[in-house]
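Q: Could you fold this chain for me?
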Amino acid sequence: MPISGKHRRPKSSTIARGVAAAGAGGAVIALPLLGATGAHAAEQAVPAAAKSAATVNAAPAAPVVKKQAETRTYSVVSGDYLAKIAADQKVEGGWQKLFQDNRTVIGENPSLIVPGMKLTLGGTASAAAPSTAPAPAVKPAAAPKPAAAAGESNSSGYVHPVPGKHTTNYRASGANWSSGSHTGIDFPVATGTSVKAITSGTVVTAGWGGAYGNQVVIKHADGRYSQYGHLSSLSVSAGQTVTVGQQVGLSGATGNVTGPHLHFEVRTGPAYGSDIDPVAYLASHGIYV
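A: Sure. Below is the predicted structure, expressed as structure tokens.
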């Protein structure tokens, strides 16, 4: 049995009187009140401790990651051309950007892409590994000869068929041509570019030309014939007389092509197989392509 009696009253202690403050680790610390000076110090300690805890426990801000543009690879299939690939694959910048990004793969002629060729979409294709052979000496380029602009007749009465320089050379060899070599020269111009008669003459052919697509063939006063192939539309008809620089059609990608361009020939007769060097012919009349 418990012993009956009075409970003994504990003595009060100055140590028991104080305030609770949160420490840096979240534990409760009893701070004694030792007069006014001690109380003031305790009040300052509370926010300082809380601030320290907040600093230690705050999570670092996540770094901002910049999303990189997606880079993909496309394998060329039969019937492809750059404009078609750019549209189907939604390439920003169109076929021109696709061509620039893949110059190391395609080469200088955007029309010459072949099945199996790997193109980079959304980025620049890696260049081939650098050669360890010493770089060849660079011959200074000759000053360009003065020439008439496209559509502007020079003193000899001839003009450029389209703006710019040609790419694929005359008689270039390869499996892309049924004869085994290129019978003309190509100008890499976009679909819809105005195609001009290089000089005056009479249209002998204006229509479908098989592998040449829509074509125009013109007989000139010197007995030579000029041919304009792969046109998207025709502006003249057979039997019509045309003047120098007159539009004969718009460039395109009809017939056997891998992309939009103008195929241009000079011939001794109206039919395939009678071609001569078009670059030399035009140069003889002051037109340099």
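A (continued): Confidence is low (pLDDT under 50) at residues 1-8, 12-43, 52-56, 127-151.
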